[in-house]
Design goal:
Blueprint (H helix, E strand, L loop, with lengths): L16 H20 L4 E2 L10 H9 L3 E2 L2 E6 L4 E6 L2 E9 L9 E8 L2 E12 L2 E7 L4 E7 L9 H5 L1 H4 L10
Parallel strand pairs: 1-3
Antiparallel strand pairs: 2-3, 3-4, 4-5, 5-9, 6-7, 7-8, 8-9
């Protein structure tokens, strides 16, 4: 009697743990550069009230583009950014609501889901750019537009984020 050796087809052979681990590790190594090259990460400080549940709703409703800049990853909760490091528009939900002030308060009215809604913003400007803090909404939100991106119309960024900002109801307005 002759001894006959039978070899199972490759698909029927049990795979060892080592092969599975190698394929998972290889897949991760290949995917990492692709993931990290997709979008930049912008450092944005969280506001003191970033943990307010409504901030999560606001951030989830923010658009993919602001002032034609693509959305980027950020380093903190309740924040967003568009553009690249050094020239990014940033958004922070959960900042301290401003007290009544004599600083420049701009009222902007725009269509939000078929209804005109007015948004009030305390506006400051310096050599770095423009800072807008929502007035009459708690928690407050802050939008910063760098000078290089806000040369034509920095308040256009406020129109881009209006649908998200509307998630927090206005309880007062500028005088």
């Amino acid at each position: 009697m002759k001894y006959q050796r039978t070899i199972a087809p490759a698909a029927a052979r049990p795979r060892g743990r080592m092969n599975r681990r190698k394929s998972i590790a290889l897949g991760a190594i290949i995917a990492l550069p692709a993931l990290s090259a997709c979008t930049p990460t912008i450092s944005v400080n969280a506001g003191p009230y970033a943990t307010e549940p409504v901030c999560a709703k606001v951030v989830l409703a923010l658009p993919d583009q602001v002032l034609e800049q693509e959305r980027a990853k950020t380093t903190s909760q309740a924040t967003a950014a568009w553009g690249e490091g050094g020239a990014a528009i940033t958004f922070t939900c959960g900042v301290q609501p401003p007290a009544p002030t004599t600083e420049d308060c701009q009222s902007i009215t725009t269509d939000v889901f078929g209804t005109d809604e007015t948004f009030d913003w305390i506006t400051t400007q310096d050599s770095k750019g423009f800072t807008f803090v929502s007035y009459g909404r708690t928690p407050a939100m802050m939008v910063q537009v760098p000078a290089i991106l806000g040369t034509n119309q920095p308040t256009a960024a406020l129109l881009d984020v209006a649908n998200a900002v509307a998630k927090i109801e206005a309880t007062s307005s500028c005088i």
